[in-house]
């Protein structure tokens, strides 16, 4: 009975007794969730354009952040380094389209998927060669990102919100909303959906796969840069940061691989869920829930709703 009480009753009693801690935990989960959603959007955009899961998105986050910090370290002003890093991500997008995607048009999806593995290890090797393997500090103040915290009393308790987290949540939310509108309402967005349905059909109506792929990979690169800045500001910029990128996988499983709203909702569920799990149920198992809870939730969805919350159910007739 004590075990059942500790699992099913005591955490909720703690939430009621200390609502300020609950709000603090929910806020931290919300910030993480929005950033997860932003990472997941990069996967969704490329998956919609090519039908393949881009395993390299995580290392793109690291590579973009390292490029920004590396340019600053050699004397480039921070804002100019930011612009140049955007240019590097465009060059990367063009290179991926010319070298990797163009020769593999209409090849099986597994071939494209394995190509993203190759891209991952190429970027790891290039990053280590150019920037070294040591962790670096994000240039937070030089980019005019706020520091410090906002503290206030709430519900008889004390809540502290980091200004950086507030800025990260706002910037990520604006980007997520902007990308959702862009790819739902614009001509490029309609072309992207056509490419996702069929490469051959898109080509037959005059849609350029090459241009769409460059646009999508460049957009994913900008998303990776933004994510790298925000996560790098919360910790160090290192190759370990690509693990955060892989957190988008359970987000995509929850929301659906082709759904922009699904990436948003899935990110919030994972972000809030893992923070609540770690704070209230973590002590029961010695901590560490935050590192595996997202994948457990994804496993449950794969068993009972493999298409995700917003994905289309695929029915094959034989």
UniProtKB/TrEMBL annotation:
User: InterPro entries in the record, alphabetically?
Assistant: ABC_transp_permease, BCAA_transport_permease
Q: Which GO terms describe its molecular function?
A: transmembrane transporter activity
Q: Which of UniProt's keywords are assigned here?
A: Amino-acid transport, Cell membrane, Membrane, Transmembrane, Transmembrane helix, Transport
What is the top-level taxon of the source organism? Bacteria
According to its record, what are the GO cellular component terms?
plasma membrane
Question: Could you give a single Gene Ontology term from the biological process aspect?
Answer: amino acid transport
**Chain coiled-coil ranges:** none
TM region positions: 29-47, 59-90, 110-131, 166-183, 212-231, 251-272, 279-304
Membrane-topology descriptor: Multi-pass membrane protein
**Cellular location of this protein?**
Cell membrane
Signal sequence extent: none
Q: Does the keyword Transmembrane helix apply?
A: yes
In the record, the note on similarity to other proteins reads: Belongs to the binding-protein-dependent transport system permease family. LivHM subfamily.
User: Matching PANTHER family, A to Z?
Assistant: ABC TRANSPORTER PERMEASE PROTEIN (PTHR11795:SF451), BRANCHED-CHAIN AMINO ACID TRANSPORT SYSTEM PERMEASE PROTEIN LIVH (PTHR11795)
Annotated protein name in UniProt: Branched-chain amino acid transport system permease protein
């Amino acid at each position: 009975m004590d075990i059942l009480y500790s699992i099913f009753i005591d955490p909720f009693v703690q939430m009621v007794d200390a609502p300020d801690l609950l709000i603090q935990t929910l806020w931290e989960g919300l910030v993480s969730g929005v950033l997860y959603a932003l990472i997941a959007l990069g996967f969704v955009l490329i998956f919609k354009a090519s039908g393949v899961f881009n395993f390299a998105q995580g290392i793109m986050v690291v590579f973009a952040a390292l490029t920004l910090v590396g340019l600053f370290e050699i004397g480039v002003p921070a804002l100019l380094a930011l612009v140049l890093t955007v240019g590097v991500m465009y060059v990367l997008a063009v290179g991926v389209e010319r070298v990797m995607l163009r020769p593999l048009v209409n090849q099986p999806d597994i071939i494209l998927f394995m190509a993203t593995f190759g891209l991952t290890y190429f970027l790891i090797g290039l990053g280590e060669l150019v920037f070294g393997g040591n962790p670096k500090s994000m240039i937070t103040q030089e980019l005019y990102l706020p520091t410090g915290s906002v503290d206030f009393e709430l519900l008889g308790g004390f809540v502290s919100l980091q200004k950086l987290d507030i800025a990260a949540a706002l910037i990520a939310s604006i980007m997520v909303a902007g990308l959702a509108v862009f790819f739902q309402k614009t001509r490029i967005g309609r072309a992207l959906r056509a490419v996702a349905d069929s490469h051959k059909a898109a080509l037959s109506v005059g849609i350029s796969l090459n241009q769409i792929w460059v646009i999508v990979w460049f957009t994913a690169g900008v998303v990776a840069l933004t994510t790298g800045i925000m996560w790098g500001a919360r910790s160090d910029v290192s190759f370990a940061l690509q693990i955060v990128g892989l957190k988008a996988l359970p987000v995509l499983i929850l929301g659906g691989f082709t759904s922009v709203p699904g990436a948003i909702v899935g990110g919030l569920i994972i972000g809030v869920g893992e923070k609540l799990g770690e704070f209230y149920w973590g002590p029961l198992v010695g901590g560490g829930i935050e590192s595996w809870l997202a994948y457990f939730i994804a496993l449950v969805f794969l068993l009972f709703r493999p298409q995700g919350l917003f994905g289309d159910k695929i029915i094959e007739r034989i």
